[in-house]
């Protein structure tokens, strides 16, 4: 028997309802939802949903994982499991036999179309119209067109492995006035055969092929006809009473836009591996307003509502084109959290107690197995924290708690995700800046753009699959090479500090070209300069090149600049000038481009050098100034006295370096009047493989301007200059 509550009047339901508003003592009744506790019981979930059963499909638990009885789960879950019938044989067609019902007079008299069973699927001239629905032509006594279902269950999917179980769980709903829309996001319509296995006229299939979950969901929404929309991920499953429960509560609360229930977590074989702490007791409901969401969801970095498979929406009160966005920003990972905040602006969310869905966790979702946009699931929380703080909705202890939570979250991933290390180093802004400036912070927006570019690059690479090995090529001497020579210090165990701070500079493994002797920094610089096309009109430019690289100087001279001045503090060639970057002997606004590669780490006063560069650049001129730095050092590390060579080697990376720049590096340039940023390798060079060209893919392009900031990728060309 299914777990249905006894029928009650609408008035009595409202008397029982627990209304949650920020500042009210009743908020305490929702505290269990904030816990991360999980049930360690391992049980088989809903055998009947296994359209393609595993060899051990008939077992209640896996060896070595322990066992549990159905009674170990919440009571409602156990009852629902007992209600489900036996597994479906492999390859069998699945046909739902609908219950007989009385037919509305309008449905009975619509020649030449008649209804097939109780569904809205049409027969014409004795044949079932393929993949079509009866067009609405009249309204029944309930005020809806005869072909319009009450609920549209939308299943956006991209993998076939679990889709059959998701569809079957939608079919087995006790609320039968539904349509089931499946959106196939694969490029080759790979899911069509899975959907055709089901002989159910309520199911409609759409091939989209966007390979983008949000766009797939939006396209399905446009096809939906129901008054309510229930999302169901192609990996997840619904309990039989999920739709019935949410429809009943939305009808009892017409002001609500979004209702949700709770879920358990299952693995690849439908074992329940976690049961989050209960939000509410079975049958209890609560209204949750936006301030409560901000304090407990945003500040706590805790999506206690869960995945979209848990929610139901009122279709005509939601703008699907923007509901997944936050402050006009399109999100890559946490669009569900943004949707909950957006819906709560219209009305409180309605929470319903009971575990009525199952969210699947499998290996393909793990970041270490290549989840390309995983990083977005980290930094988008900071975006929302800063946004709510700037709006005055997150203050005091709640804001401080959010900062601590972000620091803990970032610390777990900063070693493997460079863009997260950069954001981690900038969290001190929460203490230094007023709350209303946190969202618009120039440094945060630059770090955010960097992180988004890194995610976009990973998504682009993963969508194309593995690439064949490429011939290594030196862009300085323009010759193919068999490989790169390592630096003598490669593998030196004494570089412990440099590894701890994740310093970005030379790659010691792919260091020197075996033919021309150039190092990785020279090759990377030339790629950046060439692809940014700042030398495309070299004949019209005055260029200052400080400490020019032996392989790059002739390449630039070959472009015949209007004027090309090269030099160093200690000139190595007769035609080189003596140049002190802290006191340049050139007129104001004289140069159009200054190249200063790996010099600032040697200079006693980098602020004076940057000020001189700004003075000598013409309006709109550019500065390229690569230098080693650490994205995890909050501030630049330097001493107020000279250090010996051993100290400099251990802590600054080289015996003649006088500092290690930290995550505040960009601030040094901006304080000197420049605009620009550290642009990631993928932003400037796209999919150019660092190993193929012998450079450090972690080293960004230090590109600044005296005027408007350079822009990528529009600024960069897909082909370098020759």
Provide the descriptors you would attach to this structure in a database record.
722 residues; alpha/beta; Spore Coat Polysaccharide Biosynthesis Protein SpsA, Chain A; Rossmann fold; 3 domains; twelve-stranded mixed sheet; seven-stranded mixed sheet; 28% helix; elongated; disordered N terminus
CATH level 3 topology of the largest domain: Spore Coat Polysaccharide Biosynthesis Protein SpsA, Chain A
Oligomer: single chain
DSSP strand (E) fraction? 15-25%
Number of strands: 26
The main β sheet shows up as:
12 strands, mixed
- Which range best describes the helical content: under 10%, 10-25%, 25-40%, 40-55%, 55-70% or over 70%? 25-40%
Rg estimate, integer Å:
31 Å
DSSP helical segment count: 22
Average pLDDT level: 80
Shape: elongated
Protein name: Methyltransferase domain-containing protein
Keywords: Methyltransferase, Transferase
Domain Glycosyltransferase 2-like: 152-274
GO molecular function: hexosyltransferase activity; methyltransferase activity
């Amino acid at each position: 028997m299914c777990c249905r509550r006894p029928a009650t009047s609408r008035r009595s339901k409202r008397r029982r309802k627990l209304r949650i508003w920020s500042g009210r003592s009743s908020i305490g009744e929702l505290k269990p939802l904030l816990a991360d506790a999980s049930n360690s019981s391992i049980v088989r979930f809903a055998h009947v949903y296994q359209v393609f059963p595993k060899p051990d499909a008939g077992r209640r638990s896996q060896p070595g994982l322990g066992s549990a009885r159905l009674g170990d789960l919440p009571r409602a879950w156990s009852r629902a499991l007992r209600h489900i019938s036996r597994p479906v044989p492999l390859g069998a067609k699945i046909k739902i036999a609908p219950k007989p019902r009385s037919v509305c007079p309008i449905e009975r008299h619509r020649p030449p179309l008649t209804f097939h069973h109780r569904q809205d699927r049409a027969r014409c001239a004795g044949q079932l119209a393929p993949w079509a629905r009866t067009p609405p032509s009249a309204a029944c006594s309930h005020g809806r067109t005869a072909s319009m279902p009450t609920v549209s269950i939308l299943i956006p999917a991209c993998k076939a492995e679990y889709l059959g179980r998701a569809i079957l769980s939608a079919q087995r709903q006790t609320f039968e006035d539904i349509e089931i829309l499946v959106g196939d996001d694969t490029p080759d319509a790979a899911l069509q055969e899975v959907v055709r296995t089901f002989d159910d006229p309520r199911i409609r299939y759409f091939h989209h092929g966007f390979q983008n979950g949000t766009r797939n969901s939006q396209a399905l929404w446009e096809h939906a006809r129901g008054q309510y929309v229930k999302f169901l991920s192609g990996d997840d499953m619904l309990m039989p009473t999920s739709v019935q429960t949410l429809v009943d509560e939305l009808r009892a609360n017409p002001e609500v836009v979004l209702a949700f229930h709770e879920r358990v977590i299952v693995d690849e074989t439908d074992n329940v591996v976690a049961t989050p702490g209960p939000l509410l007791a079975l049958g209890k409901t609560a209204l949750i307003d936006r301030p409560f969401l901000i304090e407990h969801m945003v500040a706590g970095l805790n999506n206690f509502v869960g995945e979209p498979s848990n929610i139901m929406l009122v279709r005509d009160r939601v703008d699907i084109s923007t509901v997944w966005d936050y402050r006009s920003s399109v999100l890559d990972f946490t669009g569900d959290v943004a949707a909950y905040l957006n819906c709560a602006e219209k009305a409180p969310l309605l929470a319903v107690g009971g575990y009525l869905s199952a969210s699947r966790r499998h290996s393909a979702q793990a970041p270490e197995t290549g989840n390309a946009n995983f990083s977005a699931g980290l930094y988008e929380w900071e975006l929302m924290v800063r946004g709510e703080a700037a709006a005055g909705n997150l203050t005091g202890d709640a804001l401080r708690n959010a900062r601590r939570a972000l620091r803990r979250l970032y610390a777990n991933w900063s070693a493997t995700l460079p863009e997260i290390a950069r954001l981690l180093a900038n969290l001190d802004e929460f203490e230094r800046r007023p709350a209303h400036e946190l969202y618009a912070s120039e440094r945060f927006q630059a770090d955010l753009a960097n992180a988004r570019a890194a995610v976009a690059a990973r998504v682009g690479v993963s969508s194309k699959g593995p690439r064949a090995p490429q011939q290594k090529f030196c862009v300085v001497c323009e010759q193919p090479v068999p490989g790169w020579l390592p630096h003598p210090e490669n593998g030196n165990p004494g570089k412990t500090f440099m590894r701890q701070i994740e310093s970005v500079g030379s790659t010691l493994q792919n260091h020197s070209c075996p033919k021309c002797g150039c190092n990785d920094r020279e090759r990377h610089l030339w790629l950046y300069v060439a692809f940014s096309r700042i030398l495309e009109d070299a004949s019209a430019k005055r260029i200052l090149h400080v400490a020019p690289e032996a392989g790059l100087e002739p390449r630039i001279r070959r472009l015949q600049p209007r004027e090309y001045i090269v030099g160093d503090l200690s000139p190595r060639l007769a035609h080189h000038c003596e140049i002190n970057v802290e006191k340049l002997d050139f007129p104001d606004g004289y140069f159009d481009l200054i190249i200063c590669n790996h010099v600032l780490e040697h200079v006693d006063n980098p602020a004076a050098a940057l000020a001189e560069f700004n003075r000598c650049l013409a309006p709109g001129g550019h500065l390229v100034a690569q230098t080693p730095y650490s994205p995890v050092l909050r501030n630049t590390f330097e001493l107020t006295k000279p250090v010996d060579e051993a100290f400099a080697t251990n802590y600054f990376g080289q015996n003649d370096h006088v500092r290690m720049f930290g995550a505040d590096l960009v601030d040094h340039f901006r304080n000197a009047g420049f605009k620009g940023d550290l642009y990631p390798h993928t932003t400037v060079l796209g999919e150019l493989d660092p190993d193929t060209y012998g450079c450090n893919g972690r080293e960004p392009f230090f590109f600044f301007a005296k005027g408007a900031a350079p822009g990528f990728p529009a600024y960069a060309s897909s082909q370098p200059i020759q």
